[in-house]
Amino acid sequence: MKPNIFRFATKELSQDGFFTWLLQWADNDHNQQNQLLNETAKDFVRLLLGQTPDYIINKVEAGRQWNNIDIWAEINDEYFIGIEDKTNTGEHSEQLERYKQIATEHYKDKNHKLVFVYLKTGNESSATLKKVIEKGYSTIDRRAILNVLNQREVHNDILNDFKEYLIAIENQTNSHTKFENIISDWKAGEGFFIKLQELISEWSDWRYVANQTGGFLGFWYHWNEIEECSIYIQIENSFDYGIKLILKVSDWKPSTDLLYEILGEMKPYAQKNGLSIIKPDKYRAGETSTLAIVENAFTVDNDGNLELEKFVETLKALEKTIDEYCEEINTAGNKG
């Protein structure tokens, strides 16, 4: 494999530099220098604007770090684009609202149409992206960028190195069909959770969770509650210690006695739904606590592929276990 600068220049500032460089190539003055690169850059601008292929681009000015906005561009003296560029991190500290307000104030006496874009080349939960959209940003992901970069064969090492870098991330993410990849490769683990979000109809979320043992990639969804606590489903992928499907409790007064009590009451419901749930090695009563671990939740076929359909069936059985248990306890409480 030939050396690729973007495998070493992995920081967001390096990516900011690439996208600003590509935007500047969209200016019509550069058409004669490298026509295919110019056309690809124009396609990238159209992607950011949400414009059709027949939108003509003549003038492009672009730069970095204007009022802390990662990348900015003015197109045809008609559009201003403010870009929040992310690799593996997410937005924070109300930065998106702040950048939008700054640009809106600056352009209030001008005729520019304002476009705000959240550009993400890493992986992110659909729940997080939905919040970004609600803040008035369009979201553009790695696949959309690759669709532009793959449109034509451009002779330019910078562009092709970046494209190969994104393709490598995409391939890693899509390698989640192999169970070994899910538990050993971070991108494959993220790809597995992205796939689950596509398959699960209700709200779910995932992200990295830091803790004293090194942290894990966590996925959670399906809350229900009884008087004493909320109960929900969580998947923990620690990579060092394996992956677990577990039941968690929250919104409670921490008590190991309550954990023992709920586990004993829930076991018959789990068994009826074809599941075996067991106590973790040790109960720890905290703000959130592990109630039970589902045994044999992840099965693999002869080729080492995760049997995804069976896993989704397991999740549905676990949802049903929670709901039946909560309904029974709440009904008995109401009668009392």
Would you mind describing this structure in some detail?
- This protein has about 325 residues and is an alpha+beta fold.
- The chain is about 40% helix and about 20% strand.
- The protein folds into two domains: about 5-175, no CATH class; about 180-335.
- The protein has ten helices and eleven strands.
- Helix 6 crosses helix 8 (about 185-200) and helix 9 packs across helix 10 (about 310-335).
- The radius of gyration is 24 Å and the shape is elongated.
- The mean pLDDT is about 95.
Low-pLDDT residue spans: none
Instruction: Sketch the topology as an H/E string, one letter per element.
Output: HHEEEHEHEHHHHEEEEHEEH
Round the Cα radius of gyration to an integer and report it.
24 Å
State the separation between the terminal residues, measured CA to CA: 70 Å
Strand content: 15-25%
The pLDDT mean sits at 94
The biggest sheet amounts to:
6 strands, antiparallel
Approximately how much helix is present in the residues? 40-55%
Biggest sheet strand line-up: 6-7-8-9-11-10
